[in-house]
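User: For my dataset I need records formatted as: sequence, then structure tokens, nothing else. Please produce one.
Assistant:
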Amino acid sequence: LFIVSQYAVTLASNERNAGLHLEQLADSLSAIDAQSRSFLQDLEDEGVTQGVIAERSAAAVERIKTEFWKYQACGIESQILITDEDTNILYTSFGESLLSSYLVNYNNAICYKVRQTAQTEAYRAVYYERGNYSDTMYVQPFYQDGTLEGFVTVFLSGSAWNFHLSESNFDGIITDERDN
């Protein structure tokens, strides 16, 4: 009887801890997701996106660097890629060694999907290049007077996510509705 009660208490405790752990993991993901979407919307609301994409302003590029630096304070290493409507790169924080043709082509494919589905809000996707952690992408289309002018993509580093979650003692797998 003692062993059975000890087992039941341990099982109940583990189930409760697992539930709390999952809530913390979901809260962490939701907070970073909201912060990323807000960052992209703020760039558009403050005219920074227009300055880079439509006006090709050097001052706007400097402002985007500053705003992006502030955004990175969320604790997850990230990169930004800004393209025009034809997906020509206007600005990127990726170094030359990191800006592979695979990454550029994958970004172009996601931008194409955003264009075809007439998205107006940030579209989230996953980028994976062999041998690395998967990165989360947020692609925000930029419209001016109803015409698509370009895209702003933020890549959240998968390895930085892994580090962030391990620092918080999170251990789990994040999936979408289809268990991907």
